Amino acid sequence: MACPMGYGVRFQGGVDIEHEHEQPLPPPKLDDGEVDVSQKGVNKTTMFNNGVTYRDYLQLDKLLDCQAMKSADQGLPVPDEHLFIIIHQTYELWFKQIIFDIDHVRMLLNNTIVDETKTLQIVSLLERTVRILKLLAEQILILETMSPLDFVEFRKYLTSASGFQSLQFRLLENKLGVKNDHRVKYNQQHYRDVFRTDKEMEDLVDSETQPSLFKLVEVC
After folding, report:
1. What pLDDT does residue 40 have?
2. Contact status, residue 71 vs residue 81, Cβ threshold 8 Å
3. How confident is the model over 188-215, as pLDDT tens digits?
4. pTM of this structure
5. DSSP strand E in the chain: where?
6. pLDDT tens digits for 145-190?
7. Res 186: pLDDT
8. CATH class of the domain whose range is 74-219
9. How far apart are CA 140 and CA 146, in angstroms?
């Protein structure tokens, strides 16, 4: 299979624009026992015994083994619960990427004099964040393929679990600059009350006290 990126060749509309007027060369004639060098591969990566594989690099054994269905634990597996888990795990992964990028932008802006040579990088990271947020909104369309009755089938097994308990979402709100008085309360509680561990509280307080993206942009 050829490289899907058309490595080393410029294409336009599926046509090699550099050689579109040239006649294709006939295949080379090989002597007996001779090997066609074109089949040896271009830029082929040599795999050593300790080489990193796709599976190892992405830690797929961990990633694909963390979809534990509560309905299955009860002996009554509900197929749509698997979708529900995947959707929300995907949200959390994208939240992690957004936070990573926003933190980098905040670091670049949180200076007495902002380095103008970093403007393109800042704009690029913010544009990426916008695109990810649009993608997350579109994921709702996939979730809508699950009917309310399907959701009710397994919701009882989730007990008090709620999206309001997403730590990364709260961190993202704080880092962007959402004010406390603009929040929707969960069971009339302060948003921090649903988090229990010292690490969670420490991260939340840090995200509240550090300059938000909104404040840093205002200063600029």
Report:
1. 66
2. yes
3. 888 999 999 999 999 999 999 999 999 9
4. 0.77
5. 11-12, 15-16
6. 999 999 999 999 999 999 999 999 999 999 999 988 888 777 788 8
7. 75
8. mainly alpha
9. 10
Q: DSSP code of 16?
A: E
Q: What is the b/e burial string over 138-170, where b = at least 16 CB atoms within 10 angstroms of the residue's CB? A: eeeeeeeebeeebeebbbebeeeeeeeebbbbb
Round to whole Å and give the CA distance between 194 and 79. Answer: 29
Q: Residue 177, by phi and psi: left (phi above 0), alpha (psi -120 to 50) or beta?
A: left
CA distance 128 to 102: 10
Q: Are 82 and 69 in contact (CB under 8 A)?
A: yes
Distances (CA, A) of 162 to 42, 48, 165, 195: 51, 46, 6, 12
- What is the distance between the terminal CA atoms of the chain, rounded to a whole angstrom? 50
Q: Please, are residues 108 and 121 in contact by the beta-carbon 8 Å criterion?
A: yes
Dihedral (CA of 76, 81, 86, 92) sign: negative
Tokens of 62: 């961990």
Q: Helix-strand-coil percent breakdown of the chain, rounded to 5?
A: 55, 5, 40
pLDDT of 110 strictly over 50: yes
Closest by Cα among 134, 143, 211 to 176? 211
* Domain spans in the chain, listed from the N-terminal domain onward: 74-219
pLDDT of residue 74 exceeding 50, the answer is yes
CA 156/CA 153 separation, integer angstroms: 7
Cα torsion through 41, 43, 44, 49, rounded to 10? 160
